[in-house]
Each structure stands twice: as structure tokens, then as C-alpha cells.
Design a protein that fits this description.
The chain is an all-alpha fold. The protein has eleven helices and two strands.
Length: 285
């Protein structure tokens, strides 16, 4: 491990240790927030800019270090800043914090993970490169997936930072609005579980899968349009067309013809391929 990685890991471990040792999570509970709501609002009234800055720094630190308390902080944003400014502030603070966690995971662990599981992760990286934004958007919209895990796991892939930030900003917006709006009615909230009803959760799931379904539909429509200029024949002259008369092609053609199929075998060079012409043993070549 390089010195820079060791220092960063030590700082993160120290910050997390301080958080749990001094029980700072106590201040990020629903009970504490409701009890201190009036004091917090008075401080915001007298120190508006400083209150926004402190709130954003705390939010970024909690999400960047993957500490518990982001949901309570989001409620606090609605209770203290209102629906509009609360949504705006939380949206940027949560996305910045998530991106920092994403970058930390990439810097600390990606090289090690790829060195051990590079072959297995190659397919994942290829999928992320093609449709990573769609999958991330779906994960962001469905609240059943812990956001801190998404940040860390995506950091191990080859997803671009700009894509991660923009998709996270948009994907988390719906959930942010729900929690910030709930925060404006803080006195009526008894638990975090009551914020997301089954119907609302189902709506998020459907909304999350919509981009993937839409892309698949567009792909199918595009493929069908590709063949519209060719008229489909009423019948075909062949049952199977085999391209390449190597060992596999010859066996395939033989088996197909043996079951009375009409076969066309296409080969641009010599029949048999390298294995039959030159020999399968590389030493014979």
C-alpha cells in the first residue's frame, strides 16, 4: 500500500472511530432533532449563511465517510430550510458526499480488487461502460438499496466520475424531495419507517426500472426498423447456413444434413480449417 493510501485510510478510520467512540450518532437521531428543532431554527435565522455552510459540511462528511445519519440530516434540511432550499441544499450535499465516497473506494481498493479478481470484473466493467448510468439510476431511485454500498461498489468499477455525479444527482432527487417534504412536518413523524409507504416504495421501483425498460424497447424497435426495407420471404431455400468450413463448421453441417435439413456451407478459403489442413498440434505447423 502506498503512503498516500495509508494516510487516507488512517484518516477515515480515525474519523469513524471518533464518531462512534463519542457517540456522535446520538445527535443524528429523530428524537434529538425534534427536541432541538427550535434551537436549530433560531440559529439558522440569526446565522443563515453559516448555518447552510455548517449543515452542508456535516452532511458531506457523514455521506463521504459512509456514516449513519443521512436520513435524519435530510429531514433536518426540510425542517430547517423548507421544501425548496432544503431540497436544493441536500441534493448537492448528498451528491458531493457520495462522490467523495466513490472516489475514496476507487483510490483505496480498486487496484487491489482488480489485481485479485480482474478476470471476473472484466465483464462487470464492460456492462458498466455500456449501461452503467441506467443501472446506477435504478439503484438510486429504489430506497431498498443502501446508498453507501452503492457509492463504494461503483467506485470499484470503471464508471466515469462525471457520470456517477450527474446520475446520482438526478437519481436521488425524488427520494430527497420525499424526505425533505417529510421534514417540514417533523412533529408528525414518529419513525423513519413511516415516511415511505408501500405504494410510494413501489412507485420508486417502477420509476427506477423505467429507463432500462425504455432502452430495451427502443432497441427492439430499432432492430425491427432495420429490416423494414427487406421483404420477408414466404419460404426459405435453406434450413441452416453455416459460415466457416473448419472442424466445427463441417461437423455442424454433417449433423444438420443427417437429419434431412437443407444446409449451405460457406468458406472463403480451404475446407477443413487450420486443424484439419495443418494439424491441431502447434508443433506441426
Amino acid at each position: 500500500m502506498t503512503t498516500s493510501r495509508f494516510i487516507l485510510m488512517a484518516l477515515i478510520a480515525l474519523a469513524a472511530s471518533v464518531f462512534f467512540y463519542f457517540d456522535l450518532g446520538h445527535y443524528l437521531s429523530l428524537e434529538t432533532l425534534k427536541a432541538q428543532q427550535e434551537s436549530i431554527e433560531n440559529y439558522r435565522t440569526n446565522n443563515h449563511k453559516l448555518a447552510v455552510a455548517v449543515y452542508m459540511l456535516v452532511y458531506i462528511a457523514v455521506t463521504g465517510l459512509s456514516l449513519p445519519g443521512a436520513a435524519i440530516l435530510t429531514l433536518a434540511g426540510g425542517a430547517v430550510f423548507g421544501i425548496f432550499w432544503g431540497t436544493l441544499i441536500v441534493s448537492f450535499a448528498s451528491t458531493i458526499g457520495a462522490t467523495l465516497a466513490f472516489l475514496a473506494a476507487r483510490f483505496l481498493f480498486r487496484d487491489t480488487v482488480h489485481a485479485k479478481f480482474g478476470a471476473r470484473l472484466k465483464a462487470i466493467d464492460e456492462g458498466v461502460e455500456k449501461e452503467g448510468g441506467f443501472y446506477l439510476f435504478t439503484l438510486r431511485l429504489v430506497p431498498v438499496f443502501p446508498f453507501f454500498m452503492i457509492n463504494l461498489l461503483m467506485g470499484l468499477t470503471n464508471m466515469r466520475v462525471s457520470v456517477f455525479y450527474l446520475v446520482s444527482q438526478v437519481g436521488m432527487l425524488a427520494g430527497t424531495i420525499v424526505y425533505v417534504n417529510a421534514g417540514t412536518q417533523l412533529a408528525k413523524i414518529d419513525s423513519l419507517a413511516g415516511i415511505l409507504s408501500p405504494a410510494l416504495l413501489g412507485s420508486f421501483i417502477l420509476l427506477g426500472f423505467f429507463p432500462l425498460m425504455a432502452k430495451k424497447i427502443i432497441t427492439v424497435i430499432g432492430a425491427s426498423k432495420m429490416y423494414t426495407k427487406w421483404q420477408k420471404p414466404k419460404k426459405f431455400d435453406n434450413n441452416i447456413v453455416v459460415i466457416g468450413a473448419g472442424a466445427a463448421g463441417l461437423v455442424t453441417s454433417y449433423i444438420a444434413s443427417a437429419v434431412k435439413a437443407k444446409v449451405t456451407l460457406v468458406e472463403k478459403h480451404k475446407m477443413g480449417g487450420d486443424c484439419l489442413i495443418r494439424g491441431g498440434d502447434p508443433l506441426k505447423r
